[in-house]
Amino acid sequence: MGRFYRSLSISTYQRFMEGRAAPRKTVLMSGAIEFAGGTINCLVRNISISGAALDVSNPLDIPERFNLVFKADGTHIPCHVIWRQADQIGVAFD
């Protein structure tokens, strides 16, 4: 493991590795994670054209692929997990 990797905080490292094509905008919207085994409520913390960061109660309960549902208008967006932290996940839209 190189010095560069160790010198970065986890969130800085994730932003670097994601190489976002579009900046994210803070939105704080109510959402839901829908998958074959059920539904888990979440908070959409920020969003871009290509993905989002979601606040969740337990990121380990979230499958790799699911539909993100925006409760305000019922929009469903298929996505997959890019990273996981204590109470957040980062997703890319499919």
Summarize the structure.
The protein is mainly beta. The chain is built from two helices and six strands, in the order H-H-E-E-E-E-E-E.
Please describe what this structure looks like.
This protein is mainly β and 94 residues long. The protein has one domain (22-93): Thrombin, subunit H (Beta Barrel). It is built from two helices and six strands; from the N terminus they run ααββββββ. Strands 1-2-3-6-5-4 form a six-stranded antiparallel barrel. β2 and β3 form a beta hairpin. The longest helix is centred in the N-terminal third of the chain and has 9 residues, at 10-18. It is globular, with a radius of gyration of 14 Å. The N and C termini lie far apart (31 Å). The model is unreliable at 1-14 (pLDDT under 50).
Main features:
single chain, 94 residues, Thrombin, subunit H, six-stranded antiparallel barrel, disordered N terminus
